[in-house]
Amino acid sequence: MRSSDNWIARTASEYLFPTVLSCLYSRPGADKYQFSVEWHINEGQSFAPITHCATVRGPVRKILLGERVALNTLARCSGIATKSARLVSLVRDAGYPNTLSGTRKTTPGFRLVEKYGMLAGGCDPHRIDLSAMTMLKDNHVKAAGSITRAVKAAQAAGGFAIKVEVECQSEKEADEAIEAGADVVMLDNFTGEGVKLAAQSLKGRWKGKREFLVEVSGGLTETNVAEFVCNDVDIISTSSIHQGVSHVDFSLKIVG
Predict the structure, then answer these.
(1) Residue 63's domain is classified under what CATH number?
(2) CATH code: domain of residue 180
(3) Residue 17 falls inside a structural domain
(4) Is 161 found in the same domain as 137?
(5) Which of 35, 100, 172, 194 could, after both became Cys, cross-link 58 (CB 3.0–4.6 A)?
(6) Domain check: are 80 and 155 in the same one?
């Protein structure tokens, strides 16, 4: 039996994902069921409950087999995009012109969906996967013996094409990382005032000597991110836009 099914949003959201739902009903082999997806709102369009977002047509059994996967994916991705957009708005209102980013701490097996949500919400997805850049954390530095040794080893392994980022707990560590040739230094778990002082100092001290980016991360949320806004900071990264995010509530209703 063929059916027409309406997708209903039951909570407000800033972003919906036509690409996600359309892909779920156009997987290899799905064409023989002659699914069609008609969208009634556009990606990136905000909406209030209760909104008829899309109509899916096809064999009712096959639609229902994909229902839960589609609903869960839409709910998760839309929640991340909505939270991302909210944080972007906060830092822009605070005068920050540079990059707001997510982190590598994504859900196993769901990374691409979550990264897509960040992009749709206006955030940078950070590394698309762990091979996109070498990040040296405290354990790597300890295993190598020093920041300098860790950076040199990473450069030797990755070659010229792979950037190296070093997580730093102090301005002194950031200086060592920059001297060793790191492309990005992450000021981790600094205070807002500490970030502003350290970023300004590093940029001034190394001007004309080394090219590098300053990233700030560690415990940043909607309630405190404005404290870290500083033009000397190139990237503000936070996992709060994709971890513990409220989902947008969608439902599927068969109408005929």
Answers:
(1) 3.90.1170.20
(2) 3.20.20.70
(3) yes
(4) yes
(5) 35
(6) no
Q: 194, 174 in Cβ contact below 8 A?
A: no
Residues 226 and 149 both lie in one domain: yes
Residue 60 maps to a domain: yes
Q: Where are the beta strands (DSSP E) in the chain?
A: 2-9, 36-39, 51-59, 99-101, 134-136, 164-168, 184-188, 213-217, 235-237, 250-254
Q: Of 105, 137, 142, 253, which residue is the catalytic one?
A: 105
253 is catalytic: no
Q: What is the pTM of this model?
A: 0.84
Whether the per-residue pLDDT at 6 is higher than 70: the answer is no
- Does some domain include residue 233? yes
pLDDT-based confidence at residue 63 (cuts at 50, 70, 90): confident
Residue 168 CA to residue 201 CA, distance in Å, equals 15
Under a CB-based contact definition with an 8 Å cutoff, are residues 245 and 78 in contact?
A: no
pLDDT tens digit string along 129-178? 888 899 999 999 999 999 999 999 999 999 999 999 999 999 999 999 99
Nearest to 214 by CA among 223, 204, 224, 222: 204
- Edge-to-edge order in the sheet of strand 99-101: 99-101, 235-237, 213-217, 184-188, 164-168, 134-136
Supply φ then ψ for residue 212, to 5 degrees.
-160, 160
Residue 209 within a domain? yes
The burial class, CB within 10 Å (0-12 / 13-18 / 19+), for 23 is: middle
